[in-house]
From TrEMBL:
Coiled coil: none annotated. Residues 19-55 form the CBM1 domain. Its EC number is 3.2.1.4. It comes from Roridomyces roridus. Keywords: Glycosidase, Hydrolase, Signal. This is cellulase. It catalyses: Endohydrolysis of (1->4)-beta-D-glucosidic linkages in cellulose, lichenin and cereal beta-D-glucans. InterPro entries: CBD (IPR000254), CBD_sf (IPR035971), GH (IPR017853), Glyco_hydro_5 (IPR001547), Glyco_hydro_5_CS (IPR018087).
Amino acid sequence: MKTILALITLAVAISPSLAQVSVYGQCGGIGFTGSTTCASGSVCTELNAYYSQCLPGTATTTPPTTTTATTTSTAPGSTACSSSRTKFQFFGVNESGAEFGSGIWPGTLGTDYTFPSPSSIDYFVADGFNFFRVPFMMERLVPPSTGMTGPFNSAYLSGLTTIVNYITSKGAYAALDPHNFMIYNNQDITSTSDFQTFWTNLANQFKSNSHVIFDIMNEPNTIPASTAFSLNQAAINGIRSTGATQLILAEGTSWTGAWTWVSSGNGAAFAALKDPLNNTAIEMHQYLDSDGSGTNATCVSSTIGAERLAAATTWLQQNNMKGFLGEIGAGSNADCIAAVSGAFCSMQTAAGSPWIGASWWAAGPWWPADYFTGIEPPSGVAISQVLPQAIKPFL
Ligand SMILES: *[C@@H]1O[C@H](CO)[C@@H](O)[C@H](O)[C@H]1NC(C)=O
Ligand SMILES: *[C@@H]1O[C@H](CO)[C@@H](O)[C@H](O)[C@H]1NC(C)=O
Ligand SMILES: CC(=O)N[C@H]1CO[C@H](CO)[C@@H](O)[C@@H]1O
């Protein structure tokens, strides 16, 4: 303790604190050279050796050992991962809202569902992110009265198009994500022909926008891997039949979990997936709580992220496929922050760079303020620690 106090005194003596750091800003950590003075009402709190932050409150927490170490590391995530990383081509967040109001069709805009906020898009674009996954509900776009091969509801299509165009006008990519779990109008989707028509129609709407990505179906889970494969292949065939050339993302059964990609049978089934343009990636999802559901802020361990991705990474490499981690989320605690960093590090250092992108679950204006993986600015739970410590180091 004595040593720490001496170092603090030294740090204060030698660093002219010219500016005040705003709440949640960085105020210390190995290699950090900025101001260590927090805005009033917040206190500089050491979260780990590499990162101290101005957190709300006036408690007398142990101040950081700022500027006393000599390494040049910047953040915990990137330290173990600083060499031979291939950055993601696509990196961002899910933007929830249009899929809210489960089972309420068509539902009322502003009451049952909403569209993502342009200000949220701006926030992440300013940080350097370039990917937004936009979940929507099929029954609102293609009403059950006329079925999935029928015409689009023009108001819902217009809302979706507006936010998609906003995202792509910023130079970022927007993934259209029917968030239906391969269930439409309370029935499992079984007709490859109908599903192909749905995607043909949707691709025709968006094929002229090069920054739109087609995310075929969120998390099939009640159907065999072979059925999920056939439906995804039909969608690819439909999309390509329109002349659309953009990236396609295909998801398997078992909630498209990375940790079960091989054991669920997805690996065997999806090895045969064909895209005439070779521009389809396998989208997988991975949560780090004990049952992998993304419902508990406790992570299994600090290394569970890399561990749960390992078999999927090997499958991608062996099958010469590209992968996209479309959902990852975890709590704001030391184990989870290390586990998320480890996951991204394992992806960016994998031989052959099989992983082309990742997106955090989730931003969106309607998540409860205490939703443990919520990343809606300015104060979603994941904004203060996970974003700077476990996500931004991998930009
Ligand atoms: C797609 O990949 C296959 C196998 O590697 C190759 O034969 C084919 O020419 C590629 N097609 C395009 C359009 O690049
Ligand atoms: C979350 O998981 C931890 C560890 O497995 C457990 O102790 C805790 O009760 C769980 N919390 C909830 C809300 O399920
Ligand atoms: C893990 C997780 O947060 N899953 C969510 C996915 O999105 C649906 C619809 O928004 C939610 O109901 C799930 O909880």
